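=== Structure Prediction Worksheet ===
Name of assembly: unnamed complex
Input type: mixed (protein and possibly other molecules)
Chain count: two
Listed entries:
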Amino acid sequence: MFFNISLYLALAVFGLGLLYKISTWFRYRIGSEGRGLSATERTSAAIKGITSTLLSGKVFTLFRVFIVDVLLQIRLLRQDSLRWLMHICLYLGFMLLLLMHGLDKFITSIIFPEYYSTINPFMFLRDLFGFLVIAGIAVALYRRFIMKLPRLRTGAQDYYGLIILAVIMISGVLLEATKITSYSSYQEMVEEYTVAADEEEFRALETYWVKEFGVVSPVVKPPFDEELLKSGREAHDMTCAQCHSKVQWAFMGYSTAKIISPIALGLNRANIAEVLWYIHFLACWLGLAYLPFSKMFHIFASPLSLLANSVMDKASSSPANIATKQIIELDACTHCGSCTVHCSVGIAFESIPNLNILPSEKISSIKNLASDNHLTEQQLRHLQEGIFLCTNCERCTVACPVGINLQDMWFSVREALLDRGYPEFLMLSPFSYYRGLMRQSLVEDGYREPLARAREAIAAECHLMSPDKLIPLSPADRAFRSGLSLSAQASNFSVCFGCQSCTTVCPVVANYDNPEEVLGMLPHQIMHACGLGVRDLALGSNMLWDCLTCYQCQEHCPQGVCITDVLYELKNVAVKQVREKIPGEMGISL
Amino acid sequence: MKFALFLGCNIPARLNQYETSTRAVLGNLGVELANIKQFNCCGYPLRNLDYKTFVLAAARNLALVEKNDLSLLSLCKCCYGSLKKADHLLKEDISLREEINGILRKEYLEYKGDVEVKHLLSVLYHDVGIGVIKEKIEKPFSALKIATHYGCHALRPSQIVAFDDPVAPSIFDQLVEVTGAESIFWPKQLECCGAPIWGVNDDLSMDLTEKKLTDGKQSGADYLCAACTYCHIQFDTVQKIMLTSRGDNHNLPAILYPQLLGLSMGIHGEILGLNMNHLPLSGIEDFFFVPEVVEEVVREPVVKAAKT
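=== Predicted Assembly ===
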């Protein structure tokens, strides 16, 4: 009764959760794709897309990807054979347990009418599948907590996933072991399945089961009478053997039974088997009900992500479907950390404490962004910075075992965040290079505005020189002059004697008829300003952000001033200064 | 001869032909390449943000190479310049090195300062040698005029990168001439390609690229040749963008040096990824030296993309 009610309750929560999650696929979006489209429009676009794909030659691609990537998980194998083994154990073991053992009434007993959980091969297979799952959990624990891969992070969902699986598996094994040793279970079986016989025969059977089947009896104890064993065996062959294979085949349960046998009588009196039974099925129901909201939802979303990405791309798919695919991708993420381990700029996290630098952690922030959870300005700017600290090397996308097109996702989110209007200073660096290469896929204004905004924000902070603006000169800054807190190599600006060689050879200066109007201060003036300690002037010049770092100036300086290095580090100072103004900002830690 | 091949971020993502052509050419010359999967960003873009983060990123790569007891071979000149710079700083500044190593030790890495950072061109010139390359040339070019682009971060700051004479470099010219092509004189040879500012100030970037293209064309070049990821993307991908956004066609496609060398070694264009360049290189095979041709043929590479 309780079993059924709790099961239906769990199923109902699971079903509603599933519907809710699927509805988010069509309601949420993270980029500009799908803007202004209703959930209904997106659903019909998806149906249209799926139908046309299924009717085209792409169906063969889907079939291949389903076999190779979904079932065999070759993408994971290519990366790491240990992880592949781990996941195959987990998913194969669990799926087979679910089908054969969990759903035995609906599947196994229909396919195999002679099915009994106590006969082979079923008894053995149940333990084998369970063993696979437990082995998988062990490898996962090893990978997460012993191997200590740099920057691989374990979050609440990862703990939950491992714990729920472990509870289901361990309670199952313990339940099996307690039942093997249980004297009352044995008595129930005898009552149910044996025809009435005399005391002697019962005793013989019991002796045989205590010796061979691990039952712990309060009456029969070793040493055993050979005669009794022999007749017990005969009785067993006649009445029990048909429906009960040798219990040693249930190798996990049997070995656990051997371990707990000294306390088995106590466990039996306390009816621990029933307690374990409740723990076992309630953990299953909990896992089921919570599945749509946990990372385990990936068992639905990941195959979809793999399949969708094999037939979709930004160029040919409709924006509505790209938006939908990206939300599915967020659900497909298993937080396995492959992207972070392979990330080309992940190392930057060691000195810039922004979790959003790590791709696997960006995904969590983007989930919040997609569901329109209210993110504070600080959170948004952190995410924006994390997304900008990316060289677009595509390694995350190549590494992702569930085929998420992370590169495209970063691109979409980057533009969506820039649209919100927070200036991003990293835009004024080669981190913008890829965005530049992709400019033809963006609207002209949308492309240029954020760049202008970043410059304006820095200018506002540093009082950029402009003809119609009074420049409030800050008093000479001693600390600034005595090295700008720059590295030793970039602190020799004071030996500049103003010959202007740097400015003369600068290709950026040469590009303009009236360079001071465009660039503000020119290289030799910046060196001079540094020497005077006039901070605002040095930091506020457009010249800094338009510097090519071609090192012509430095190469040609007769005084050996490291002009380009000074310009580099002035940018560092400017960015640091402006970042510190962001509410709640932590700054760079190194 | 074995080097750790440092590809950087852009090559695997959008300049695959640079890797395949390099592997083909170096394989032909008997140079072995080790692949270190754990490499990260060279640090170049991080220099604008934070100096120490830049050094940290570069140092991790150097430490990985040192662990494998190899020298590093970079294909990109910006990676080369950054790694050289960081290497220099780490050798000079002991307290910085300690600080950086403190972080690297968390991953069981440490940089002691025993790695030599080299560029593809310096390996070809110094380690392999012009003589050895010459022996491998099977299909020399003739009357092919190449404008070599050295790349800023290989040449300067010369004291640190020590690649070649910063004012009158010749390594690249010699390496081009070994293929039978002529390396022309062009005044803007040592100027910046414009790539570092691409995405930040595109107009400025295109101005600089345009100056180089104009100068190269006026000096009679048939093709521009670079041996740097950023420079090549600038002369190839960005030049193509310029065709539509600025409407001017300089008719000066770019070829990567290992593509040029590979062709003259008789390596198939498909292996060299010629068709992966954005501006077509189809005309270049007309320049192979054919002894029996008497008449002068007009050879003009055509930038087909102009029409699309």
